[in-house]
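Quick log. Single chain, no ligands specified.
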Amino acid sequence: MDFAILINDEYLNLAQGTKLTPVDNKTVLSLANDFEDEKWRRRKFNSFVWDNIALTALTVQEREKLAGKSDSTLREAAKNLRLTDKEDDKGKGSELAEIVLYGIMQHHYKALPVVPKIFYKQNVQDNAKGADSVHIVVEGDDAFSLWFGEAKFYNSIEDARLASIVKSVGSSLLTDKLKKENSIITNMAELDRLVENKALAAKIKLALSPDNSMDNIKPILHIPILLLHQCSITAGNKEMNDEYREKLRVQHLDRATAYFKKQIETLADKVTKYSSIKFHIILFPVPDRKELVDQFTNAVSFYKG
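-> predicted structure:
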């Protein structure tokens, strides 16, 4: 993943002396695209989207079948995108954010996309709300972690936006929602195809079975929260220099603090074993949300064509 990493640390290390609690098990990842000819590299960003679209829009079997056929892969992936000409702008941006999150999970966290969520939502007659991404990270020969992600694409990430994000995260942490995501994982063939260690795959299925209490899952549960957002700092900048990097770091740490404060106030006393769950806020600024959504929509229409 060829984006600049501006922050990649535990929140406690970034905000020493904070009075927020509990803030352990929380991390901040700040990413930024660079510039060329004094312009933000839109083509590079769009390429990242289309290079990673198959992770969420196609099954692993389809990806393997289409290996080496890039045009065919894009066309098949585009068929499963939910957006239509009639869908509102918010919906189109949401799907774009989901794809970006799948790319980040693959390249930064080395995660396995055990549920291609866009494929699943398109091909199952059930568009019930749930996690925007579902991944497993293999940690050695006999250990794993479970990642249920949220992906948002907003015109801003000011305080007014944070409540809706926290509400969405809280909803995804309800026991019945978690169990449903687990059942999707165990009922799809992705797990067996992606986890080469068959003993570990069997262990994962056992851990995610409906007979196992979700209280046992919380210590290995990670919630990555992608905030892809329009940014005036980025829109007014022309090069990836130290001043730009520092402005983004300051802004993103401030927004991470505001988000975690709201999340703690809202969820800490409502979600069982809240302090055991690991939360990762991921911030990625863009200069113009509408332009990127329009470009994405036009490209989807072309490949669906």
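The beta strands are 4-10, 26-32, 35-36, 39-40, 112-115, 133-138, 144-154, 221-230, 278-286.
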